[in-house]
Recover the amino acids of this structure.
């Protein structure tokens, strides 16, 4: 089979998605374990932790929800806070919309469930998924695989909670994973600018509640990079 | 029930600009910013993790150790461009630091 044939065969995208997903799932495993451990050791309970992985599929929001539920917060407060923490998914969805435009209706309604930081980062820079069928195969494999691994690791964390020692190793895994995904974006000048501005604003706005600091950081980074790029385009060469 | 409501709200955030108000109908200025979203979001997530605690059950993260672990992770990410190696490096640095302490 030639390289072109291999690339266009259905198995090509599935194999590529599995290959891309493996290190990502491995990297995120400690974060999922942490969610299981957090649920099992709090009043929220192990079952709630696992259910949150199935329903929410977003680590930061899950940890926030479990903490609030364990503290006896009202349903309205939990829902509002989770929505704020997950507000960045709105931006990810806007960026991914061209890939969903020519997809079947079922896919456009159900497959966005897999819109989350790692899957967005996996497809953001890929130019080989323009064909709707190829994107669909890649997205379902990567997203479905990530969701399955995420739920399984959360359950494992809940089971192992009584024997796992208290360690910061679990908390450092998620930012390290995001760091690994960030580095390729730093090749471009606009990417570096967006990252630096977002990081500075995130530190300055860390005191804001419910993920608002992160949202402000992302917005500041995107706006600055967009304005800088516009100014560069207009300047005479 | 609370989790189900939170899940519906989250799914709304994920689908509204794909299914209900497709993003290609957004103003051109907004669409021009979307390619810069990934570096901004990822850098924001890393910086936020650096300055906040992530969870009550994981033990007390010593800031110095976390910074060192992420610095090593950044170095490994820059040199290897492999998604899993920086995580393993960061976890290894943290475990070694905790054992030595």
């Amino acid at each position: 089979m030639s390289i072109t044939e291999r690339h266009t065969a259905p198995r090509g995208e599935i194999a590529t998605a599995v290959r891309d997903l493996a290190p990502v799932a491995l990297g995120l495993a400690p974060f999922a374990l942490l969610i299981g451990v957090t649920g099992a050791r709090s009043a929220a309970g192990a079952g709630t932790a696992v259910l949150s992985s199935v329903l929410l599929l977003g680590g930061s929001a899950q940890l926030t929800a479990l903490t609030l539920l364990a503290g006896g917060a009202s349903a309205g407060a939990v829902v509002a806070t989770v929505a704020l923490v997950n507000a960045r998914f709105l931006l990810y969805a806007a960026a991914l919309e061209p890939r969903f435009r020519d997809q079947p209706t079922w896919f456009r309604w159900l497959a966005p469930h897999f819109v989350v930081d790692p899957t967005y980062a996996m497809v953001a820079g890929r130019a080989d998924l323009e064909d709707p069928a190829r994107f669909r195969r890649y997205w379902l494999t990567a997203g479905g695989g990530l969701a399955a691994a995420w739920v399984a690791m959360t359950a494992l964390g809940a089971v192992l909670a009584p024997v796992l020692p208290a360690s910061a190793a679990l908390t450092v895994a998620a930012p390290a994973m995001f760091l690994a995904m960030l580095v390729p974006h730093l090749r471009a000048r606009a990417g570096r600018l967006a990252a630096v501005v977002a990081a500075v604003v995130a530190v300055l706005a860390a005191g804001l509640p419910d993920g608002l600091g992160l949202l402000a950081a992302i917005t500041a980074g995107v706006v600055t990079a967009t304005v800088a790029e516009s100014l560069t385009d207009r300047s005479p060469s | 029930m609370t989790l189900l409501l939170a899940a519906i709200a989250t799914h709304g955030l994920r689908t509204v600009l794909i299914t209900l108000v497709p993003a290609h109908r957004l103003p051109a200025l907004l669409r021009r910013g979307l390619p810069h979203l990934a570096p901004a979001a990822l850098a924001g997530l890393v910086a936020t993790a650096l300055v906040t605690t992530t969870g009550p059950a994981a033990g007390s993260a010593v800031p110095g150790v976390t910074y060192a672990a992420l610095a090593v992770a950044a170095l490994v990410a820059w040199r290897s461009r492999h998604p899993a190696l920086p995580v393993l490096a960061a976890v290894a640095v943290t475990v070694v630091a905790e054992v030595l302490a």
